[in-house]
Amino acid sequence: ETELPHFIMPVRLIERIKGIMNFFKAIGPENVKRAIFDVLGDGNDEGRIRTFIQENGYEKNILLHGFCDMETLNVYYKNCDVMVLPSFSDQSPLSLVEACCKGLPILASNRCGNHYETIEDGSNGYMFDPDNHREVKDAFEQIMGRRSEWKQMGEKSVQLFEQNFKQSVVLPRFIAALENS
């Protein structure tokens, strides 16, 4: 049997905003047990989420690591396979940009502000409406079904990062826009 893939979830543990339990309920127990989810962050709902994990027997699959500094975060990014951001609401999450920079496939809510610059649906990952559980589950199963393509999907993420966020590209564009206004 192949080793379970690692999904990184750099999120604050605030359910009504980040939708962590919502994501796991949507993908269902059989899918939760197909992977290891490293949840990096702290927040007011840590107790609720811990109880949810215990009540569902997910202790081997959903690991709460608490707040992580940048150095620790980098280690998780380097050792994971896919980044997940299931937010109900997220203005402009830096974690999507970080995932692109680190060359990861991405599974994210379409409510994340900068998904236009970081995700090409079906190319470097998948998006979903966090309120549509069927859509969340389908997106998860689609990305799992393409495990052999994760490396290429990650390369596409790096291309999007270089095209949309790299300073050597973005600053001249910004300056040109200012000069032409």
Compute the separation of the termini in Å.
59 Å
Number of E-state strands: 6
Along the chain, the helix and strand elements come as EHHHEHEHEHEHEHHH
Q: Show unreliable segments.
A: none
| Backbone CA Rg | 16 Å
Descriptive account of the structure:
It is a single chain. The longest helix is centred in the C-terminal third of the chain and has 15 residues. Helix 7 links the parallel strand 5 and strand 6. Helix 2 crosses helix 8 and helix 6 crosses helix 9. The protein is an alpha/beta fold. The chain starts with 5 loop residues before the first strand and ends with a helix. Helices cover 50% and strands 15% of the residues. The protein is globular. It has a 6-stranded parallel beta sheet, with helices on both faces. It has 10 helices and 6 strands. The mean pLDDT is 93.
What are the salient characteristics of this protein?
181 residues; alpha/beta; six-stranded parallel beta sheet; 10 helices; 15% strand; single chain
Can I get a quick summary?
The chain is α/β, with parallel strands linked by helices. Helix content is 50%, strand content 15%.
What's the structural blueprint in terms of helices and strands?
Blueprint: E1 6-10, H1 15-18, H2 20-27, H3 29-32, E2 36-40, H4 46-56, E3 62-66, H5 70-79, E4 82-85, H6 94-101, E5 106-109, H7 115-118, E6 125-128, H8 133-145, H9 150-164, H10 167-179
Parallel strand pairs: 1-2, 1-4, 2-3, 4-5, 5-6
Helix pairs in contact: 2-8, 6-9
